[in-house]
């Protein structure tokens, strides 16, 4: 895995892109070539990526911006305070967005990584 990709980002990407669909398989192959270009300054953990497209094949998502994966976050008490969205542009990982729906529960990338449940 690329050393410039923080563990929280890599962990959430791996958890959200966990299906055997051709899109998720292709996007997981991009992770070793991914680095974080910028992060949201609010502290949520949203990350914008840079990818060497010469090292990775595009996923079959089309040429526009696409939500390639999403996962609702569920706390230990069963609350759903937000979700994670993974966006692609032209078939390449573009950014990971942390969305919060709660004023009471802080939703960060570290919290999201903790709350993500393995989906079958």
- The shape is globular
**What portion of the residues fall into strands of 2 or more residues?**
25-35%
Distance between the amino and carboxyl termini = 24 Å
Radius of gyration: 14 Å
Structural class: alpha+beta
- In quaternary terms, these chains amount to single chain
Query: How many strands, what sense, and barrel or not for the largest sheet?
Result: 5 strands, antiparallel
Count of individual helical segments: 3
Number of strands: 5
The helix/strand series, from N terminus to C terminus, equals HHEEEEEH
For the largest beta sheet, what order do the strands appear in spatially?
Answer: 1-2-5-4-3
Instruction: Give the helix level as a range of percent.
Output: 10-25%
Regions with little confidence, pLDDT below 50 for 5+ residues: none
User: Overall mean pLDDT score?
Assistant: 88
What does this molecule look like?
A hairpin with a 2-residue loop joins strand 4 and strand 5 (92-100). The protein contains three helices and five strands, in the order H-H-E-E-E-E-E-H. With 120 residues, it is of the alpha+beta class. Helix 1 (7-16) packs across helix 3. The model has no long low-confidence stretch (mean pLDDT 88). The chain has helices at residues 7-16, 22-30, 109-115, and strands spanning 34-39, 47-51, 65-73, 82-89, 92-100.
